Amino acid sequence: MSDRVPCAIVFDRLCVTLGGRRILDDVCIEIPAGGATVLVGPNGAGKTTLLQCLVGKVPHTGRITMPKRLDVGYVPQTLEVARGLPLRVAEFLALGLQRRPLWLGVAERLRGRILETLALVQAESLVDAFLCDLSGGELRRVLLAQALARDPQLLLLDEPDAGVDVQGERRFWEILTSLRLARGFTQVMVTHNLPLAAHYATNVICLDGRVLAQGPPRQTLTAPMLFTLFGVPIHLYPDQCETADPPCPECGALAAGHEAPTLLPLACPKRWAVGDLSPTPPTEPCATRPAAAQEAS
Amino acid sequence: MTDFATWIYDIVGLIPLECLEADFMRRALLALLLLAPMASVLGVHMLHQRMAFFSDAVGHSAFAGVALGLILGVSPRLSMPLFGVLTGLGIMALSRRSTLGADTATGVVFSAVVAFGLAVTSAKAGLGRDMQQFLYGDVLTITGPETAFLGVLSLTILAFQTIGYNRMLQISLSPVVARAWGMRVALWQYVFALLLSVVVMFSVWAVGVLLVTALLIVPAATARNLARSAGGMFWWSMAVGTSSAFIGLVLSAQEWCSMATGATIILVASGWFGASMLWKRTLGR
Questions:
Q1: Does ipTM exceed 0.95?
Q2: Which terminus of chain A, N or C, has fewer Cβ atoms within 10 Å?
Q3: Is B176 on the interface with A (CB under 8 A)?
Q4: Secondary structure letter of residue A96 according to DSSP
């Protein structure tokens, strides 16, 4: 008898072709129940398409095995909120909770539940705010609240932390993790925030049209894998390095951006931008980089 | 049925206005009081879904529908709504199944049906004159059976708004989320396109092809300025649409006014919209 965590969802040889272009090719994935699975990969890697396959929006071949009558929550990348639409946050959450049409008002019995759900994402003060007036971070938390209000067993999130400031991003991940642990739902999330994914995810899938790696973050978010995915040297785990990162000799910074705080400073990002240097793949993680950095300087 | 209709007309006749003493005026008022609320509340969804152009395309298909009816020997009052419904469903199918955006798909169908209508009418002498009433609309020519059909349509739209208002709003905000919740997004969109097409074709009779979009959009746009909630937008839209229809009909029947009914209705609705803009600006929203 295996002691593995039972799988919530299994993708078996999934292929998606859109407009004559193969988006996903022979994708085989196991998503463990109750875990925080994160999909990483460059733009156009098929991450969002994979989520949309789960809700039946994209035609595909291959098989997706998941429990029938699964309650699914979805936090979209964007929301089509027209300017000036007088939709209040309470009404937005009620959309998924009540059969009664909104023109008859939000059911009084739901008011408490809506406030409780907003409190979970620290947004109870926004209950009467208009959706179109929310900031990026507030909107993300309200979108999460709408998905959580239906008490989903499977929560899909498509770059829910995009466009949010550093503090807001971390806060979002913390809220999400504590809720997942408390409620036990299975989380599948697309993100570009590699450090936070390494910290909070339990399972990572590296995707670039096909699956390049899947497993725990430490085994998948390695420097060679990230170089293969993104084409730039990124390392997330200091213990994979033989020496500490030297600062950029030109600007003195260790990081080129918060999304990749330990991006190797082969040269000042300003010089990268004009294409003075092309990065060297860290085939042996970190060991060759000081030399490369010296060479660059 | 006849007794029921007489009873309804008698009730309309209780309104103490001299212009409503004539039967055709009572019938016109009843038709407008049924049509305007339907158009207004469907306009709310049109605004949410950014489909303002849709009603223009379906409305303009009236020419082709009438011309086809006259050529095939079918009553234009039947061929026109049927062709309008086909046009509406065609637009929805094209925008859903192709990579074209909704506005491009609507534009393509719009051009095709207008060109078809003009080609047919220009090829048959004398047909152009019959088209005038569809260009400007004439609610005073609506017949009793058509008013009865509008009554049935009102009940259908009421059922759609009761079951589908939340769903349609969620679909307009995020179709993917709607799908994740198990909603049949395509079905709802097609049903909406069907009902909207029927209402548009009746609106063509009331206000004409040129103003049909205004009957749907202006009340909803006014409601967006005035409402303090998404639910409130429904009621404001209905109130603006219905009051504009009533005031527009009565005004157009006055001797000192004597303007086309459809145009007067839209002018009143536009007045409402102007006032709502001032109100919104006053509140700083």
A1: no
A2: N
A3: yes
A4: T
